[in-house]
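Q: Here's a chain of 188 amino acids. Please give me its 3D structure as tokens.
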Amino acid sequence: MDEKQRLVSLVNGSQEAMSRISAKENEIDNSRKWEARLTKYFHSPKVVGLISLVGRFFVAGFWLAVGITLSVILTAILTMIIPILPDWFITGLIVVFTGCLWLFPVYILPVILNFRTKKLQKELTALQQDPALEWLPMQYRTSFCFGKIAEYVQYERADSVKEAFSLLQREIEQLTVSVNNAILSSIM
């Protein structure tokens, strides 16, 4: 088997593993977007003025209303299930619990999303250990890099694994330079 056939067979053999990696990368990206949105909305220094206070007031009011409704329903249910405890004790527990519900979207949800992102990142790392990807260096086990290598094979720009890696490395360097130039030009 010559180098070109070997490269084609390696790319074809890695398609399934890379599709799973691509799906996991999309999940991570979505989780990070939601985390950034919530953090930006609730913790942005630009929004600390009146708009932030009004927004937090409405969020707190909504969750407090949900809490009061839940406390009435849960008090009725719990007093039937556990008749030994006095009503005031059950009501107090539920009010304390539901009074903290407004903290969920403001502070707890971003933390949960952060944990989810970390969990997804660990799952991605496990997927990148797939035996079908042993021929790829670890830094190239992303959907972007694999897509570029598959593109080189499809358009016959690379005839060997080494040539595909060289093309990829050059393209990454060009991309890095263009991004850095764009950042510098936006600063100046």
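Q: Can you summarize the key feature?
A: DSSP finds six helices and no strands in the chain.
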